[in-house]
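thought: user wants a sequence for this fold. calling inverse folding tool.
action: design(structure=
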């Protein structure tokens, strides 16, 4: 990974704050296990995994600014600790480490053609993630957002990057096109499943367990999947009550009413079903890979996304 200490002191400190302590490390794990699952040498791809986590951390720095969230991983968000200007520049710097890390893979022995292909995947994924973020912002206050439009936004904002992690790991390892496609499809389905699980966090028994404001989307008047599914499943009276509560956010009583109606309409169970469906799809794509410890690790991640079924 590029040395953060090469940067100006303010950026170096802010970058370390954004990166450490680490989160789930989902994306770098996907990259490393994907490479190893097709016979690659993990030592050759580790810089790419670290660079990908840096880029993800940069996106979270910017997300917290956009969403006005003051907490990330149970402590002050980067912009609260170092100020908005430094946070913006730090996020940008973290993005570029992703590309610098690919050069490190080349120095470790990955053929240049694979490096070029991985760079193309990274660049396209980065643009798609920005597209997804812009769509999410555009949904602010859009009570009428179709569920399909929301799922496409989630695919672009979240699943594109998990798919890219798997695809890049496979490409750097020299996998066949069929295995690259299988791993990318796995990563995309897994990313959608995890995004839906995140959407369910505000309705969990411990909504602060994620280490960030669980109600951020509702506070910012962004309808998440459970709210949209509740709208579509509700009776006329429930729909009117849900619309009124959504419009009254961020009042505390409005939060409570939204949660109540999402539960009443069975939207939580429906969202859980959809998350499990995508996790099951992810597992199916792995059947094309040779059996082994690293395929098992990828399967374990999909089983985490399956989660225990919610009560109806």
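)
observation: tool returned 312 residues.
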């Amino acid at each position: 990974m590029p040395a953060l200490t090469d940067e100006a002191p303010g950026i170096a400190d802010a970058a370390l704050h954004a990166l450490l302590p680490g989160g789930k490390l989902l994306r770098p794990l996907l990259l490393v296990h994907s490479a190893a699952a097709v016979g690659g040498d993990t030592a050759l791809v580790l810089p790419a995994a670290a660079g990908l986590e840096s880029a993800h951390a940069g996106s979270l720095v910017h997300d917290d600014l956009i969403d006005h969230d003051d907490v990330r991983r149970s402590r002050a968000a980067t912009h609260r600790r170092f100020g908005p200007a430094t946070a913006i520049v730090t996020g940008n710097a973290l993005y570029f480490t992703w590309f610098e890390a690919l050069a490190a893979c080349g120095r470790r022995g990955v053929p240049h053609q694979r490096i070029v292909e991985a760079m193309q995947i990274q660049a396209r994924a980065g643009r798609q993630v920005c597209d997804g973020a812009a769509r999410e912002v555009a949904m602010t206050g859009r009570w009428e957002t179709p569920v399909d439009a929301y799922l496409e936004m989630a695919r672009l904002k979240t699943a594109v990057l998990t798919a890219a992690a798997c695809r890049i790991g496979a490409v750097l390892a020299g996998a066949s096109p069929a295995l690259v496609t299988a791993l990318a499809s796995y990563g995309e389905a897994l990313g959608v499943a995890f995004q839906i699980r995140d959407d369910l966090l505000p309705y969990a028994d411990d909504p602060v367990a994620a280490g960030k404001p669980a109600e951020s989307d509702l506070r910012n008047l962004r309808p998440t999947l459970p709210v949209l599914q509740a709208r579509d499943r509700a009776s006329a009276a429930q729909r009117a009550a849900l619309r009124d509560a959504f419009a009254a956010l961020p009042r505390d009583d409005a939060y409570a009413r939204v949660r109540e109606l999402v539960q009443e309409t069975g939207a939580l169970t429906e969202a859980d079903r959809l998350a499990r469906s995508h996790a099951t799809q992810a597992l199916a794509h792995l059947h094309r890979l040779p059996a082994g410890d690293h395929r098992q690790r990828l399967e374990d991640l999909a089983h985490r996304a399956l989660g225990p079924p919610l009560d109806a």
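thought: summarizing for user.
answer: Here is the designed sequence. The chain has one domain: 9-306.
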